[in-house]
Design brief:
alpha/beta
Length: 380
């Protein structure tokens, strides 16, 4: 075998060359071994891990870098991420880049909270009703009138199993009536007929009690029957039932004395009722006023005909007035109100129906009334 260099005949030189040759071969072997190792040594920068780095246990002096699987496994065993020498930083998953958007999420507008928190008192009494809805007679304590006072309420059949809110119709009784008067004329039964045939959406109806007080605040700091309706009754209903507590979803109507009441309440307490119905309203003249209706100034502030001449809120409501063509006693003032509204160019619905001022007339036209309220109230 011929060596890549000549061996000198001088023994000393020959020995030195042999040593250099051996050392070169040794370095060559180390270089070959290093090149055959498929993973480089661990960088010095990895010896100081982040606070949440995990410790990977490998055989000492193995010279190998831990795999991703080992790092993940070690992370689950060391959730606290102790800062130990020799730990590796965790694998960082890049966060997806979300493109900016200018579309704002809609914000729900809460309904107004009732001004008065008036709870129910006593036990609700079920009222016999052959329909699918629920009718009960309930009470609350009126601080304005100084006593517990009753009302009847109709809740549609779906109310118990639905999270929906509903518009409310307040229907006022006449001078000789009470909270059950509108039931005599089939109000709730006719309502359900319209609901079941899809002509009206479900709504709540309340029948308050007004005695014979014309639904008006009495003079000389007397009983506040007007404020009681506009504030206490409305706030009590909104606070205890799922109503839509907005004026466009709140209607008030009435017959005879209740018709007068609906008109003057809407004008004296603006922004409470957005839909108003007066059915054969008994609007007295100053000469035919009741004994407690004192003074022309007070009378003008509560008489619907006089109020309509200057009141501006009457221009904002959806208004219905009807009267029997044979209602000789009360029709003249109804026609007087009609003229005032026409002169002011105020929008309203006027209906002349055959009949007198009696139960038969109102019974015959309950469907007409309900159709007006159903098409005028806002259901959401």
């Amino acid at each position: 075998m011929q060596l890549p260099f000549n061996i000198d005949s001088n023994p000393e030189n020959s020995w030195n060359k042999k040593i250099c040759w051996a050392f070169s071969m040794f370095l060559l072997l180390i270089l070959v071994a290093a090149c055959g190792n498929d993973i480089a040594a661990t960088p010095t920068a990895l010896t100081q891990p982040a606070d949440n780095a995990a410790i990977v246990n490998l055989p000492q002096n193995s010279g190998a870098v831990p795999t991703a699987t080992q790092i993940i496994a070690a992370s689950s065993q060391n959730p606290g991420g102790q800062n130990q020498v020799g730990a590796l930083p965790p694998l960082v998953t890049p966060k997806p880049v979300v493109a900016p958007t200018n579309t704002a999420m809609p914000t729900a507008t809460p309904y107004p909270t009732p001004a008065l928190k008036i709870p129910q008192v006593g036990t609700p009494l079920p009222v016999e009703f052959k329909g699918k809805g629920q009718v009960t007679e309930r009470q609350f304590n009126s601080s304005l009138l100084g006593r517990n006072i009753s009302y009847r309420i109709y809740l549609p059949a779906e109310y118990a199993n639905s999270p929906k809110r509903y518009p409310v119709l307040y229907m006022l009784h006449g001078f000789s009536g009470k909270v059950d008067e509108w039931m005599w004329y089939g109000l709730f039964g006719r309502l359900e007929d319209l609901i079941n045939t899809g002509q009206i959406q479900p709504l709540i109806i309340v029948l308050p009690f007004g005695d014979q007080e014309y639904w008006v605040d009495h003079p000389n700091n007397g009983l506040k029957w007007g404020e009681y309706i506009a504030h206490e009754v409305v706030d009590h209903i909104d606070g205890n039932f799922r109503t839509i507590p907005l004026k466009q979803s709140r209607g008030i109507g009435g017959l005879s004395m209740g018709g007068n009441g609906a008109l003057q309440l809407a004008m004296n307490f603006p922004n409470i009722f957005g839909v108003v119905g007066a059915h054969s309203p008994t609007m007295r003249t100053y000469e035919s006023r009741l004994p407690w209706m004192e003074g022309q100034t007070w009378f003008a502030l509560h008489d619907p005909v006089e109020m309509a001449k200057t009141n501006n809120y009457i221009t904002q409501v959806k208004l219905w007035i009807d009267d029997g063509t044979e209602d000789e006693l009360w029709r003249p003032r109804a026609l007087e109100l009609k003229k005032v509204l026409l002169d002011r160019k105020i929008a309203f619905t006027w209906k002349d129906f055959p009949g007198q001022h009696d139960a038969e007339y109102w019974t015959d036209h309950v469907l007409d009334y309900l159709s007006f309220y159903g098409s005028s109230l806002a259901f959401k």
